[in-house]
Amino acid sequence: MKLKILVDNQALPGFKEEWGFSCLVEAKENVLFDTGASSKVLAFNAEKFGIKPRQISKVVLSHDHWDHTGGLDWVLQNSSVKVFVLNSFSNETKQRIEKKAELVEVSKPVKVSKGIFSTGKLSNSIDEQALALKAKEEVIALVGCSHPGLEKILKKVEEHGRIRAIIGGFHDFDKFEVLKGIDLVAATHCTEHKTEIQGLFPKAFTECSAGTEFEF
Ligand SMILES: [Zn+2]
Ligand SMILES: [Zn+2]
Q: Which of 194, 191, 214 is CA-nearest to residue 205?
């Protein structure tokens, strides 16, 4: 399984940076997790990786914030994609998708593709879903902004097996002890306490930018 970071607040040379997050999961099917803030940057970085909208089968939107849904139009050029959103997303976002592709509304945990599972709706002030990716017997947690609290998300992801890696935005997460034992911590996008996390887990901490690729 390969993960390619398409959009992030920072970028490797040759890629464009933007406040937002998007990651392509290449497994049995290609599943796009979030779309960044704009079609322009998503299209540019995807092109750099050689990825076209028609190569994507499914899209999962973590939550209904512009920096995760902004690039939707790029992937909706492929009318055969299935887009998984939470049932609490705004009608505006739902209609935007329904006009062009198939909309799947999620509240409970659901299988998105082979080895790719949504945590279902996790709530706090903002509803969000994250992905549990099965890599052999272990699991990779792929998160958007972690608004409901990363500890809550990890608990749900852990139901699928031992968490080997976590990738995405941690927001203001500060219950650092829950990261103990995770081999790879790629805290990026909106993560506020990046320096502390890097200091506490120097071996696990991994820099992550648009253009970064992971293989599990
Ligand atoms: Zn957000
Ligand atoms: Zn965000």
A: 194
The predicted pLDDT at position 80 comes to: 97
Ligand 2 center–CA 65 separation, angstroms: 7
Q: How far is the CA of 195 from the centre of ligand 1 (A)?
A: 20
Q: What is the mean pLDDT of each run of 10 residues along the chain (216 residues)?
A: 98 98 98 98 98 98 98 98 98 98 98 98 95 96 97 97 98 96 97 97 97 98
63 CA from centroid of ligand 1 (Å): 7
Q: What is the number of the ligand closest to the CA of 22?
A: 2
Residue ranges per structural domain of the chain = 2-215
Expressed in angstroms and rounded, the spacing between residue 132 Cα and the centre of ligand 1 is: 19
Nearest bound ligand to CA 147? 1
**CA dihedral of residues 141, 147, 153, 155 (deg, nearest 10):** 140
CATH 3.60.15.10 fits 2-215, yes or no: yes
